[in-house]
């Protein structure tokens, strides 16, 4: 029962309730980059003991091809019929990281997990407690509070999509910058020692010898 005493969520529970939670729980370890929860299994609440999880949501976007190889992405509202597409447009899927859940966090409390995955970023250990235990504790009021708190911490779809676009643009900028640096460094230098003026040779003799 030590693990329950360490959890702030169970500090006000009676010993009998903690015994019930202990009898209706289990500890699971998930390797890195594995799906911990997809949709809602409606059975367990997951408490993260160690490691970090990503909350990833699938969204639909309209991709529009622009001149010079560029493109523009527009978010399609869920449940809304996509607009008629031109020849330069296509519907595609993108995956947004809504948030990171680490030690002391939780999920699986009845939040909306439609088209959403909880994925381990590294090795993750979770304590799984049956939801029925919470319902017996106080009729599910604490579970509802946990759900409300978790949902309020999620960014909106627009905020998550904006962060995705910023990260996407930053990755493109870094790649272009690295490619340019590599291109410049690999550029062949045709300068010969005899091409350097005599006065510069004398003033910078130490460096020019390396040519």
From TrEMBL:
SUPFAM superfamilies: cAMP-binding domain-like (SSF51206). InterPro entries: cNMP-bd_dom, cNMP-bd_dom_sf, RmlC-like_jellyroll. Gene3D superfamilies: Jelly Rolls. It comes from the Eukaryota. This is Uncharacterized protein. The lineage of its organism: Eukaryota, Metazoa, Cnidaria, Anthozoa, Octocorallia. CDD domains: CAP_ED.
């Amino acid at each position: 029962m030590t693990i329950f005493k360490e959890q702030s969520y169970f500090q006000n529970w009676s010993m009998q309730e903690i015994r019930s939670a202990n009898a209706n729980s289990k500890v699971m370890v998930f390797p890195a980059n594995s799906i911990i929860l997809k949709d809602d299994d409606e059975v367990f609440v997951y408490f993260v003991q160690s490691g970090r999880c990503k909350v990833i949501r699938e969204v639909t976007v309209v991709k529009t091809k622009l001149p010079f190889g560029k493109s523009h992405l527009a978010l399609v509202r869920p449940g809304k019929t996509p607009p008629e597409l031109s020849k330069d447009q296509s519907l595609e899927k993108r995956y947004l990281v809504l948030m990171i859940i680490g030690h002391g966090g939780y999920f699986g409390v009845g939040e909306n997990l439609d088209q959403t995955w909880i994925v381990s970023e590294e090795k993750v250990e979770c304590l799984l407690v049956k939801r029925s235990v919470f319902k017996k504790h106080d009729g599910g009021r604490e579970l509802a509070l946990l759900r409300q708190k978790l949902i309020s911490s999620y960014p909106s779809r627009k905020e998550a999509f904006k962060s995705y676009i910023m990260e996407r643009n930053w990755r493109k900028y870094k790649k272009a910058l690295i490619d340019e640096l590599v291109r410049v460094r690999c550029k062949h230098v045709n300068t010969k020692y005899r091409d350097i003026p005599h006065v510069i040779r004398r003033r910078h003799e130490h460096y020019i010898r390396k040519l």
